[in-house]
Design a protein that fits this description.
With 405 residues, the protein is of the alpha/beta class. The protein is built from eleven helices and eight strands. The protein folds into two domains: 189 residues, 3-Layer(aba) Sandwich (Rossmann fold); 141 residues, Rossmann fold (3-Layer(aba) Sandwich), CATH 3.40.50.1400. Helices cover 40% and strands 11% of the residues.
Amino acid sequence: MAPDTAVSTSLSSTDLSPVAPYDALLLFSFGGPDGPDDVLPFLRNVTAGKNIPDERLAVVAEHYHHFGGASPINGQNLALQKALSEEIARRGLDLPVVWGNRNWEPYTRDALSAAYFDGARRMVALVTSAYSSYSGCRQYRENLWASLDELGVDVGLGEGEHPLVVDKVRSYFNHPGFVQANVDAVTEAFESIDRDARLVFVTHSIPDTMEEASAVSGASYRAQHLDVAAIVAAAVEQRLGRPVTWDLAYCSRSGPPSQPWLEPDVNDHLTALAADGVQAVVLSPIGFISDHMEVAFDLDTEALETAAGLGLVAVRADTVGTREPFVRGLVDLVLERAALARDADANGAHPVTADVAADAAARPVAEATAGELPPFRSVCRPGCCQMRAETPTGIPAACSTDPWS
């Protein structure tokens, strides 16, 4: 079977399950070490192909050893997997949720293999990154393609043949469920200190070249964050009944100092705020869906230490985690993607062209959003989410109209 080709089916009946044509959901994440012995091998996986010596990786490894060598992301993925399964069951639906990672066990291929041998033939993937960029979208899709290739060989189909069709839900930074969960978390943080404070949204920095390339998706990585931050801040302001001033800062940059990354760094920004007379801050990790290492170390350890050293009162808002609005929203996104796939199948369309209409209003399924930006595509357009603008990686990626560009 050729990659991403349609499975023969009849999906025109209105009596089909809302999750049809999907028979499994892949919770698709980054991965993290389970203990001290895993840290260096995990970091080698993350940086594969970049020729980074172990001496440099050992510096990053200390972040993990600070927490006993285990990443908190694994427990949080298990909690989200359970919450998704419970919400799916609450709606009376049948869709098993499997968990797979790019960089550590359970690996993507192993999750897909388990689902395949349990009978899955068409799956939908939910990436644990809300935003669209190379790191948050295409890199996952490249890993998905490679994993499907490997699975094809494992089951005797041969290299380049995929035994599964795997679609994905769209980037969901501007989905109402993600937005509402952040509004609730930020409001609670303000109420916990019961005073005026500056709101500082924080996300993972990326290279300027990746930021430029991300704009092909419809709005750049930075613009995506500014859109959702504005709507969250406005809603918090309304809930509190007082003005809220906010900024966007970044954490977790890496690479050589000569390579420009998005700024300001959150620690530099806190220093500047303190110099301007700001006395209290609420840090909102809006770029992350759970309290994994970038939150636990870069914010809860480094940034809060910076704030304390500056005499700033600082509180960190929760990530969306397994908050009810977020989990409900993720299941809504799965049902939205299933409806798009059913419409495509009913009209004889190839599954990867299910939502390629340039005008979102022309799509056959309502796609809920908050903020000013339209819904992003669940099928990526050519050139979307490259590492550098107009510079293909040469690695094929799933869930695209052109896997090579």
